[in-house]
Amino acid sequence: MTSTKRKPARRGKKNSPAAKGPRSGRRPPVVAELPLRQGLLAMATIGAQSFLWLATVVAIIAGFAGAAFGVWSLRPVPAYSSERITTGSAFEATFRVENASAWFALSHLKISCALGRPGTSDTPPVDADQSRIPSRLEPGERAAFTCPFGAVAGGTTNDDLEVALRSEIYFRSDYDEPVIGSFRLTDNRGPFVLDTRLLPPRWTAKPGKD
Questions:
Q1: Could you tell me which of 55, 152, 192, 193 has the fewest CB atoms within 10 Å of its CB?
Q2: How many CB atoms lie within 10 A of CB 24?
Q3: Residue 38: CB partners within 8 Å, gap ≥ 6?
Q4: Which is it for the CA torsion 148, 152, 153, 154, positive or negative?
């Protein structure tokens, strides 16, 4: 009996992955997008922190500047006036200095007087006679002083009214800074002119100037 051999069936070749076409609807990978987003988020966070830090620094500086301006505006300032002249020379008048500040005292006040006359060279300032001024003027307190103008004014007398009317007086003050006493403040006032409309006359601040 003759046996018949079967031929093995041929298996079809599998299609290689390269032969297959691209799958439709496949999303691109998002792995590369994540670091970019994280970097942008980190940059935004750093920028916000930097802006907040800068705003804080500006606010602190503005606060210190405001406090310094407030203290400066409240600093003691001397105000000057003259008593009425009843006898003697107009240059021998008694002046008064007042601490115009409502908060701080005037400490170690030093006053210089200067006499100016139109058409003549300015005379050097002279130190005021401060024997009646205490070392510390409290807010609103007043004290009297005189200016020894006898020599620089040419020895004027009651008859030298014309000379006095052409003269101007200036005051220069030096005193301790109220918060840090090691610093000195300077204040200049004037000119003051002899006002004969007042009876008896006295030295007053020139209109429009002080």
A1: 55
A2: 5
A3: none
A4: positive
CA angle, residues 108, 188, 133, in degrees to nearest 5: 30
* Domain boundaries along the sequence of the chain: 33-73, 78-205
Residues of the chain with pLDDT under 50: 1, 18-19, 156, 158
What is the rounded distance in angstroms from the CA atom of residue 52 to the CA atom of residue 45?
11
Q: Would you say 78 and 109 are in contact if contact means Cβ atoms under 8 Å apart?
A: yes
- Map tokens 């100037």 to a residue: 209
With contact defined as beta carbons under 8 Å apart, do 138 and 78 qualify?
A: no
DSSP E strand boundaries for 51-93: 78-82
Residue 132 carries which DSSP code?
T
Fold of 78-205: Immunoglobulin-like (2.60.40)
pLDDT tens readout for residues 29-62: 555 566 777 777 777 788 787 878 888 888 888 7
Q: Given its phi and psi angles, is residue 119 left (phi above 0), alpha (psi -120 to 50 degrees) or beta?
A: left
Question: What pTM did the predictor assign?
Answer: 0.64
Task: Write out pLDDT tens, residues 69-88.
Answer: 556 666 889 999 999 888 87
